[in-house]
Description:
128 residues; alpha+beta; Tetrahydropterin Synthase, Chain A; 4-stranded antiparallel sheet; 32% strand; elongated
Amino acid sequence: MFEVAVEHTFAAGHALRHYKGKCENVHGHNYKIRVAVRGEKLNEIGMLMDFVVLKKALRDVCEPMDHVFINDLPPFDVLNPTAENMAVYICECMQKALADNPHPVEVAEVKVWETDIQSATYRPASVK
């Protein structure tokens, strides 16, 4: 099994609903997102996936969240905008974005850092 990963950063604000503590107040983060994809075979030139294509897909998924109040964006207008829920959402968006990739890959994991020392990771079950 091969795996490649890319990272992207953006800044945004949010407030956690039903949380008792400072994070229930509006605050912001400089998020760092890491997406890894996996697959069993390399393409004809020896790549699992072109980093350029993977970076563009991640950038396109994250762009609507950049410099906004995340609580205002679907699905986070209903779903609590925790790092865990953001990781699942980004994973689902990336899976859709990569569905038409000419070489089959699947999302192995999405990691969302809210700070340099705090992150949440989501690893979807293999689609096989």
